[in-house]
Amino acid sequence: MKIYPLVIAGVLSTVAFSSCVSKKAMQAEKEKYVVLETENTRLQQQLAECNTKNADELMKKALLESDIAALKKQIDFLKENNNQALKQLENLSVLSSSQAESIRKSLDNIGAKDAYIQDLQSAIARKDSLNLALVTNLKGAIGNMSDEDINIKVDKGVVYIDISDKLLFQSGKYEITPRASEVLGKVAKVLKNQPDIEFMVEGHTDNVPYNGSGQLIDNWDLSVKRATTVVRLLQKTYGLEPSKMAAAGRGEYVPVADNATSAGKAANRRTRIVILPQLDQFFKLLEPKK
Fold first, then answer.
1. pTM, full prediction
2. Crossing angle of helices 178-192/97-142, nearest 10°?
3. Using one digit for the tens of pLDDT, what is the confidence trace for 149-203?
């Protein structure tokens, strides 16, 4: 009869131990759920931003195509009317040579406007094709590197290469790390094969005040020094033409994420290479034909 209390005590101990383990497991699962929910929210926000940008670009493209279509209709209408008028007037004895010449010039002007629209369309298509080829080559050279470390995109006709500062610099420093030379070397190889390309290297920081020593004062100085360090490396180590490059410091004032979180701060600490659009090609279209 005395054995019962011992058995009962053992059962109660087992139940208490199982309850403790279950609580720990449940707490761990709750923590995992919170992490996954936070990551899901961040990804949903990124997706929403991408969808908004894509929608804006599609809308702009649709408006441009609509304007071009409207201009073509106007040109066709004017051509038809002027051709009919010219035929009618040429059959009249009252038509002077100067009047006929004026009508012919009007037709020539319409033809020039039509050619101008076609030139613009060809230039835009050619530029889009070059940007697509450039992005493809860059992504091929970079390989399978995470988008959190290096991101290549086209926005409003401009190619951007964003490189995380954890690949390039130590915290608060502007000296290039060994890993940076590898990454920048791959980018430089692609850019060097496009000698007509001009680009700007921008340094960006988060909003944490710079507290280092030396000649630097604040994040402005740090971002500029990082940009010039990258430009100098591209010139001296990889032989890129210095006249095709520019360096700029943006400090903390052009963030791509919220500085309220550590992930946002990490995203804002970046070096951006901006492939500058070749506007001279478009300006040539505005020059009078000789």
1. 0.55
2. 150
3. 888 888 877 888 899 988 899 888 999 998 888 889 988 988 888 878 899 999 9
Calculate ∠ Cα 49-50-54, nearest 5°: 120
Taking 50 as the threshold, does the pLDDT of residue 285 lie above it? no
> How many Cβ atoms are within 10 Å of 227's Cβ, its own excluded?
25
Structural domain contains residue 187: yes
> What six digits make up the tokens of 26?
């449940």
24: in domain: no
- Token pair for 200: 């700007």
85, 118, 143: which is the final residue of a domain? 143
What is the token pair recorded at 155?
């926005």
Considering the domain architecture, whether residues 126 and 160 belong to the same structural domain is answered as no
Strands 270-276 and 198-204: antiparallel
In sequence order, what are the beta bridge partners of 246? 200
**Final residue before a domain boundary, out of 125, 143, 161:** 143
Range of the domain at 103: 57-143
Residue type, 19: S
Query: What's the Cα-to-Cα distance from 13 to each of 9, 18, 115, 257, rounded to whole Å?
Result: 6, 9, 91, 52
